[in-house]
Specification:
The complex is a heterodimer.
Chain A (H helix, E strand, L loop, with lengths): L3 E4 L3 H18 L3 E6 L4 H7 L4 E5 L12 H11 L3 E5 L2 H14 L3 E3 L1 E7 L4 E8 L4 E7 L4 E5 L16 E4 L8 E8 L12 E5 L10 H10 L2 E4 L1 H6 L20 E5 L5 H4 L7 E6 L12 E4 L2 H14 L2
Parallel strand pairs in A: 1-2, 1-4, 2-3, 3-10, 4-9, 5-9, 12-13, 12-14, 14-15, 15-16
Antiparallel strand pairs in A: 6-7, 7-8
Chain B lengths: L2 E5 L2 E3 L5 E2 L5 E2 L5 E3 L1 H17 L2 E8 L4 H9 L4 E6 L8 H16 L4 E5 L10 H9 L3 E11 L2 E8 L2 E8 L2 E5 L11 H7 L4 E5 L11 E8 L7 E3 L3 H13 L5
Parallel strand pairs in B: 1-6, 1-8, 6-7, 7-13, 8-12, 9-12
Antiparallel strand pairs in B: 2-5, 3-4, 9-10, 10-11
Classes of the chains: A alpha/beta, B alpha/beta.
């Protein structure tokens, strides 16, 4: 047996994996399979977007978490022997991928940002970031299946195509779990357009107090952009919600313009803005690493610079 | 009384990695440290012990030179340390490390109730050793946990997931990987460091293991990430600010 398998915990991420999965399957001349948990209606949607086969996971029992499917998924993979198995690297996805890899004795490239199939050698090569984003590690796989956990927004979602055909196969129900979910607390998700924003203004540690973040909002408004922040602002100071944290441990963005205010340019953060078309920075420390990775940088106190900048932008037609 | 195992990795401090003029990574002047999130794992183990009694066993798979890391772990409050060392362990992959840990925990540590790991290591950040170790030992696993407690033979954990927080529980033994916000690790004092020298260290050699798993991955390249940018700098007077805004305009990023 062979094939490309993908697993993600929601539709949006499944579509991204179907996108790259279809590309790989076509290059390899094989089939693409994906999973759907609980909702059988979804299967048609996935078939129209490139899946040849949808593996249906019956609904979980009360108190079971998604991890309850691990024995079912790993068992099916051991039988069907796919060539490659991709996961969406959400927190849950990274955990699932590692545990299934352990059961299959397979190699897993976590935080995978690129994957290629070499037709001549029929092998895969994957890339990931290491040392806080300072280095790119390339890995080859020496066991089957090749596995990778891919962060959100690396690949384009699969598009719908009419007239696609595929089959749905039902898998056994999850066995009783040793772990139990006792409570779920939904995140107070502040709606943010940050991931898709055209302009992002980012707050860094250069701010003295929370109230001063008003400057970030004002500049973002002047530019028609969204606000983001570095990890210390959300995780240590809790001045902004974690959804706005940009970097290796937060989200990656690809705006037209990024402006960092009081952002020093730690590599963990810069990793998240690599895809920006233009990077600009305001920092009073001339030697801040961000200037080495910016297109345009103002060396100066942000408290002095930002109001001037807003003024100038208003004048600019 | 629970036996708590805290796993840690002795890693290159990435702050010391330099880049040569040709853009290659230069590891010649690096220092080492206990991986950041593993400090949280050790701290959490010690806190659980302080709250409910028991003992804390620190454990690492490393090269023989990592003795400084062993002492650091002990000075952070662990009661004893299993030091699994061999010169060839520098480049173990997560799958191999997890199997070595499982081997030693099962066959040498023996009885344990809770295993704590950091969510990932600060060098390679593969985030696999914890979950793989749990599978190898056949015990429940909760990853990315921000709060953990022990109660009546159970572990109760608050794990972070996409939708928010999931409160989960399992009967011990179990494994938990912790997020950095689970606690603030202590900074060992002089007394802690002195006491650490008197604590027992069990050294396990490669020959003492029941074997080493074959690699499943091969690193075929490690190179510095390049960021090609124009690096233009501007001052703060009115003319400079105008020039900066013009620069944005020229690049077509203003509406």
């Amino acid at each position: 047996m062979s094939g490309v398998w993908v697993f993600a915990e929601n539709r949006e991420l499944t579509l991204e994996l179907l996108g790259i999965g279809r590309i790989l399957a076509d290059e390899m001349g094989t089939t693409l399979s994906t999973f759907v948990a609980g909702d059988r209606e979804r299967a048609k949607d996935y078939i129209s977007r490139g899946a040849n086969e949808v593996l249906f996971l019956p609904p979980l029992q009360e108190g079971q978490a998604l991890e309850a499917y691990i024995p079912v998924i790993a068992g099916e993979a051991a039988k069907a022997d796919p060539d490659i198995f991709l996961f969406a690297a959400t927190m849950r996805g990274r955990d699932l991928a590692a545990r299934i890899a352990a059961r299959l004795d397979a190699g897993l490239c976590s935080g995978c940002v690129a994957i290629r199939f070499d037709k001549a050698s029929k092998t895969f090569e994957a890339e990931r970031l290491a040392y806080g984003g300072a280095a790119v590690q390339k890995v080859a796989f020496t066991a089957r299946p090749a596995m990778a956990a891919i962060p959100p927004r690396i690949f384009e979602p699969a598009k719908e195509e009419t007239g696609r055909d595929g089959q749905v196969r039902e898998l056994p129900a999850a066995p009783p779990s040793t772990a139990r979910v006792v409570e779920k607390k939904a995140k107070e998700r502040k709606t943010t357009n940050l991931p898709d924003a055209r302009v992002v203004v980012c707050a860094g540690r250069g701010f003295d107090k929370k109230e001063d973040l008003a400057l970030v909002n004002q500049l973002a408004d002047a530019l028609g952009g969204e606000v983001g922040c570095t990890r210390p602002i959300s995780e240590e100071l809790h001045w902004l919600p974690e959804e706005l944290c940009i970097g290796l441990s937060g989200i990656s963005i690809k705006p037209e313009l990024y402006i960092g205010l009081g952002v020093s340019g730690q590599i963990q953060h810069m990793t998240g803005i690599r895809g920006a078309k233009v990077i600009a920075a305001v920092n009073r420390d001339e030697n801040a690493p961000i200037f080495g990775a910016s297109d345009l940088g103002i060396v100066g106190d942000l408290y002095d610079v930002v109001p001037k900048l807003i003024e100038e932008l208003k004048k600019t037609p | 009384m629970p036996n708590i195992v805290a796993c840690f990795k002795w890693v290159v401090d990435e702050a010391y990695i330099r880049r040569t003029s040709s853009g290659e990574l230069d590891f010649s002047a690096v220092d080492y440290k206990i991986s950041e999130y593993d400090r949280n794992a050790i701290e959490e183990a010690v806190r659980l012990k302080d709250a409910g009694g028991g003992s804390v066993i620190a454990i690492t798979v490393s090269v023989p030179e990592a003795t400084k890391g062993v002492k650091d772990a002990l000075s952070r409050g662990a009661d004893q340390c299993y030091f699994i060392a061999d010169p060839s362990f520098r480049d173990l992959e997560p799958a191999q490390t997890a199997k070595v840990l499982a081997d030693v925990i099962r066959n040498r540590v023996g009885s344990f109730d809770l295993i704590l790991c950091g969510e990932g290591s600060s060098d390679l950040y593969a985030q696999q050793v914890g979950p793989r170790l749990a599978e190898n030992l056949g015990i429940p696993c909760f990853s990315f946990v921000q709060k953990v407690s022990l109660e009546g033979g159970k572990v109760i954990a608050e794990r972070r997931v996409e939708e928010g927080v999931e409160v989960v529980e399992a009967t011990l033994p179990a494994l938990v990987t912790v997020l950095p916000d689970v606690n603030i690790p202590r900074i060992p004092g002089v007394k802690d460091t002195l006491m650490a020298s008197k604590k027992p260290v069990v050294t396990v050699k490669k020959e003492d293991l029941s074997g080493l798993a074959d690699p499943t991955l091969r690193t075929v390249g490690l190179s510095a990430v390049r960021m090609e940018r124009t690096c233009e700098k501007f001052g703060v007077d009115a003319a400079e600010i105008r020039r900066f805004v013009d620069g944005l305009k020229k690049r077509g990023v203003l509406k």
